[in-house]
Amino acid sequence: MSLDNLRTLYQQVILEHYKKPKHRGKTDPVDRRQRGHNPSCGDTIDLTVRLNEANDVIEDVKFEGEGCAIAMASADLMADAMRGKTLPEALEMVQQFQNMMKGEAEFPRELRKLNVMQGVAQFPVRIKCATLTWHTLKAALEQTAAVEFVSNEESD
Ligand code: ZN
User: Fold this and answer.
1) Ligand 1 being an ion, which residues bring their Cβ within 5 A of it?
2) CATH for 3-142, among 1.10.287.470, 3.90.1010.10, 3.40.50.261, 3.30.43.10?
3) How many angstroms is it from 43 CA to the middle of ligand 1?
4) Per-block mean pLDDT, blocks of 10 residues, the chain (156 long)
5) Buried b / exposed e across 35-54, counting CB within 10 Å, b at 16+?
6) Among 79, 131, 144, 145, which has the minimal tally of Cβ within 10 Å of its Cβ?
């Protein structure tokens, strides 16, 4: 695929998820909640997670917040991909996403939609927009029901 086609593809997917997000809102109940902020662009995100009774499988992820198309689309794509994942699987996917944005890995076939965010890696200033929601989810899963405010300014 030529670079131009790839650009068009990822832009289409990003715009589609930005304009018609499927996972905006708040989970019911809220088992984990985490807010994140990307100061370099001004994106904010408020993630809520519903877990199963044993607290080891993600049943639902929803997000609220304001930000650029990349940040919001990344949150919607992530929410889609996380349903039904165990916590270790989810944390591994966070790591995989970060590796992908560094050009070191790709998602397998069943999660290939996430690979469109690779297009963003051409614009280093936008990488933090794409990774914000993933950092925020990681923090949500690693804490126990606390509301924390994370910034991705000094990470990676
Ligand atoms: Zn942004």
Assistant:
1) 41, 43, 68, 71, 129
2) 3.90.1010.10
3) 5
4) 65 92 97 95 97 95 96 97 96 95 90 88 89 96 64 55
5) bbbbeebebbbbbbbbbeee
6) 144
